[in-house]
Design brief:
585 residues, mainly beta, Immunoglobulin-like, six-stranded mixed β-sheet, 6 helices, 36% strand, globular
C-alpha cells in the first residue's frame, strides 16, 4: 500500500505519468484489468520526488574549427564550441567526468556554484586542485543547493577558457514558478572572443615579451561572429521567434578580456536575474555585462515581423586598446525570408561611462520573502584592496621589463601545489597567511597617472578568515599606469554589492550611502574605472577560495589572491574529505 504520495503536478515526471495514465486507460477500457492497472500505476507514482543525479561526460579534445576564413586546431569539450550546456534542477547532484585527451593540462571551474564545503569540485588549477593531466580523468561531483538560474563553466588554467566554456542552466525546484512572467521559450546566448591564431601561442608570446598579447580578431555569439565578418554567413547564430510570444535570454559573457554591451534592434529587455540571483525587474534598451557575469532578460516579440540583429560590442572608458568589432546574431520572426536584411541596434558608445554607471545602479535584489537579501549589517573584518598595474624587471623581455598587476601592491605567484590540498594536508611552504588588509602605502589612488616606482612585491600570499565572520571588501581602482574597469570574481560565495562610486573611497562618508536593504547579490562585480566598489559576505563556507580579476590578461599578471576560510564548529562545518580521484601535481 502507498504511504507517501508525491503530488502529480510537482513530480519530476508529471507529464510522463499523465501520458502513461492516458495510455493505460485506453488499453484497459472495458476490461476487468482497469482496477489492477490503475492501482499499479498509482503505486508507481507514490515514490517521493527526490533530487536527481545528473551525469555528464566531458571529453577535452583538440578539434578543427573554422571562423573568419581561418581554420585551426583548438581545445574543445566533446568537439563543440561553445561546449555543452549543463542542465540541472535546484537540489540536484551533478557528476561530470572530465577526461583530458588534449596536450595541455586542464581544470574546469563551475562559475558561480557555491560548492559548500566542497572546494575539491571548484576547479581553479593550483588553487583547489592540481590540473587533470593528459590521459587522466577527474569527476567533479557537487550538489546544487539553494541556487537556481544561469551560471556557466570554463577552463581555469592558462587562457584555455577562450575555447573551453559553456552554460549551466539550473531550473527552480519542481512546482516552483519563476518570480516573473513565465516565458514561452528560452535561449542560451553566450558571448565570447575568437583569435585566428592559437590562443595559447598568443598568450605565451605576450608573456615572453612582457607586454599584452595580441587582442582577439572577433567577438562571438554562441561561438559565431555573425555576418559582419568575412566567411561568416554560415557562422551566424539565429533564433526563430513568433510574434506575441515572450522569450527568456540567458546571456553569459565568456569573453577573456572585454566587458560588452548587448542589445536587440527595436526591442526592449526586462532584466530579471543576474549571476543566478533574481532582481527587481527593470526595462533597458541594452545591457552591460562583464567577463564572468550572467544576465537573464525577458524580451517580447512585439515588433513588425522581420529580422533583427542582436549585437555585442566592448565597453572601454579608459585609454586602453580593445577589440572594438561588433558580433551579431539574428532574432528572426517566423515566416520571414532570409533575404530580408536585419536591422542593427543602437549600442551605447564604446566609452559611455554614464550608461555603465546608470545601468549598474538599477540592479537591485528582488528581496522577496521567498528570496530575501540577507545582507550582513555588522562587519567583523574590513578589507581595502587596491588594484594596480606595475612594471617589474625581466631581463629576457622586450624592454627588460614585464607588465604586472597587483592587489595591495602584491602580484600573486601561482603555487606548484594546490592551496586547498596544502591547507587540508598541512603541507608547509606553499603559501603564507600574510596578505595585508590594506595597501602598504596610502596615496591619492585615482589622481594623476603614476608612472614611476611601479615595481610590485611578489608572493603566494593569502588571507585567513574566521568561519562565519562577516567581511567587507572595498575594491579600489588606482591610476598606477592607468585607471581601468575590473570585474572581480569570488569563488565559493555570492556577495552583496553595498556601495560603489567614482574617485577615492572615503571611509568616513561613503558607508553612510550604502544600500543595506536590497543591494544586488552576485559572484562577479565590475569595479568602475577610477572608482571603487564595496562588497559584503558571510564567510560560512570553509575552504580556500580564489579572488581575482576576471580579465584573463590581468589574472595572468598577478591580479589575484585567495581567502582561507577556517573550519567551523562541528563536522558539518568542516571541509569535506577529498575525493579518491583528486588529481596530483
Amino acid at each position: 500500500m502507498c504511504l507517501v504520495l508525491a503530488p502529480l503536478s510537482h513530480h519530476p515526471f508529471a507529464q510522463l505519468f499523465e501520458n502513461l495514465s492516458s495510455q493505460l486507460r485506453k488499453m484497459a477500457k472495458n476490461t476487468s484489468f482497469l482496477g489492477f492497472l490503475v492501482f499499479g500505476f498509482l503505486c508507481f507514482i507514490c515514490l517521493p520526488a527526490e533530487a536527481a543525479i545528473k551525469k555528464y561526460q566531458f571529453d577535452v579534445q583538440v578539434s578543427n574549427v573554422s571562423r573568419l576564413c581561418h581554420a585551426k586546431q583548438m581545445v574543445t569539450v566533446n568537439g563543440r564550441f561553445p561546449g555543452p550546456t549543463i542542465y540541472a534542477r535546484e537540489g540536484d547532484r551533478v557528476q561530470i567526468n572530465v577526461t583530458n585527451y588534449a596536450h595541455y593540462n586542464m581544470s574546469i571551474h563551475w562559475h558561480g556554484l557555491k560548492q559548500y564545503r566542497n572546494g575539491w569540485a571548484d576547479g581553479p588549477a593550483y588553487i583547489t586542485q592540481c590540473p587533470i593531466q593528459t590521459g587522466k580523468s577527474y569527476v567533479y561531483d557537487f550538489n546544487v543547493t539553494g541556487q537556481r538560474g544561469t551560471l556557466w563553466w570554463h577552463a581555469h588554467i592558462f587562457w584555455l577558457r577562450a575555447t573551453v566554456y559553456g552554460a549551466i542552466v539550473i531550473m527552480p525546484q519542481q512546482g516552483t514558478p519563476f518570480p516573473f512572467p513565465q516565458p514561452d521559450k528560452e535561449e542560451v546566448v553566450v558571448l565570447g572572443e575568437w583569435w585566428n591564431a592559437d590562443v595559447e601561442v598568443v598568450e605565451k608570446q605576450g608573456n615572453a615579451l612582457g607586454i599584452p598579447p595580441n587582442m582577439s580578431d572577433a567577438h562571438t555569439i554562441n561561438g559565431k561572429p555573425g555576418p559582419l565578418f568575412p566567411c561568416s554567413e554560415k557562422h551566424t547564430f539565429a533564433m526563430e521567434v513568433e510574434k506575441g510570444k515572450t522569450y527568456l535570454l540567458r546571456i553569459i559573457n565568456a569573453a577573456l578580456n572585454d566587458e560588452l554591451f548587448f542589445a536587440l534592434a527595436n526591442h526592449t529587455f526586462t532584466v530579471v536575474e543576474i549571476d543566478a540571483v533574481y532582481t527587481k525587474p527593470f526595462s533597458t534598451e541594452a545591457i552591460l555585462i562583464a567577463p564572468g557575469q550572467t544576465t537573464n532578460v525577458l524580451v517580447r516579440a512585439n515588433q513588425v515581423p522581420g529580422r533583427y540583429f542582436m549585437a555585442a560590442r566592448p565597453f572601454m572608458d579608459a585609454p586602453i586598446s580593445v577589440d572594438n568589432k561588433t558580433a551579431t546574431a539574428i532574432f528572426q520572426y517566423k515566416g520571414i525570408p532570409e533575404t530580408v536584411l536585419p536591422k542593427l541596434p543602437t549600442l551605447p558608445a564604446q566609452n559611455d561611462t554614464d550608461f555603465a554607471l546608470s545601468y549598474n545602479s538599477k540592479l537591485k535584489s528582488l528581496n522577496a520573502p521567498k528570496y530575501p537579501a540577507n545582507v550582513p549589517l555588522n562587519v567583523d573584518r574590513h578589507l581595502l584592496f587596491t588594484i594596480g598595474l606595475g612594471i617589474n624587471p625581466c631581463p629576457t623581455c622586450l624592454n627588460g621589463t614585464r607588465l604586472t598587476a597587483s592587489l595591495n601592491n602584491i602580484s600573486f605567484i601561482m603555487p606548484q601545489t594546490a592551496l586547498l590540498q596544502s591547507h587540508y594536508f598541512n603541507i608547509k611552504g606553499v603559501y603564507t597567511l600574510d596578505f595585508p588588509d590594506k595597501p602598504p602605502t596610502p596615496f591619492n589612488f585615482t589622481g594623476a597617472p603614476l608612472t614611476a616606482n611601479l615595481r610590485t612585491n611578489v608572493g603566494t600570499r593569502i588571507s585567513k578568515i574566521a568561519f562565519n565572520s562577516t567581511v567587507e571588501i572595498v575594491i579600489q581602482d588606482t591610476n598606477l599606469l592607468s585607471v581601468e574597469s575590473h570585474p572581480f570574481h569570488l569563488h565559493g560565495y555570492n556577495f552583496f554589492v553595498v556601495g560603489t562610486g567614482v574617485g577615492n573611497f572615503d571611509p568616513k562618508k561613503d558607508p553612510a550611502k550604502y544600500n543595506l536593504i536590497d543591494p544586488i547579490e552576485r559572484n562577479t562585480v565590475g569595479v568602475p574605472t577610477g572608482g571603487w566598489t564595496a562588497i559584503r559576505f558571510r564567510a560560512d563556507n570553509p575552504g580556500v577560495w580564489f579572488f581575482h580579476c576576471h580579465l584573463e590578461l590581468h589574472t595572468g599578471w598577478g591580479l589575484k589572491t585567495a581567502f582561507l576560510v577556517e573550519d567551523g564548529p562541528g563536522s558539518d562545518h568542516n571541509i569535506l574529505p577529498p575525493p579518491k580521484d583528486l588529481p596530483t601535481c
